[in-house]
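Marked as duplicate of an earlier ticket. Keeping the data here for the record.
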Amino acid sequence: MQIHHVSIAVPNLDEALEWYARILGFTQPEPHAIAELGATMAFIRRGDLKLELWQLQHGKPVPPERREPNSDLLTCGTKHMALAVSDLGNFLGHLVREGVDIAAIQLTPTEPMRAVAEKTGTGG
C-alpha cells in the first residue's frame, strides 16, 4: 500500500498553483470547477508525488493556534506533509530565498517521531 495523493485546502488556488510550481517544481494544470461543492480543484504532480489542491467558496482561514506545530497537535486532523529531499541544506536555502514561511525545522527527531526514526533508520 502507498499514498495515492494528499489533499490540501488553500485560500487561493491560483496563488497556490503558482507557489507549488515555482517553489517545489510541481506541474501547473488548469483548475476544474466543482459547482455542486462551490469549489475549484486541481491535481498537481512532481514525479510520483500527487497533491490535490482545493479552494472552497466559503473556506475558513487557518486559525492562529493551528500555525504553531506544538499547539496544533492538540487539534485532531491533518498535521503536515513531509517531503524527502536529497540535500536539506540547499533546499532550505532555496525556501528561505523564496520567502517561504517556515513554521519549524526538525533536524533531530524528538518524541513521538524519535521512535519512528530509530525503527526506520531515518534520523536521530
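See parent ticket for discussion. Helices lie at 13-24, 69-72, 88-97, 113-120.
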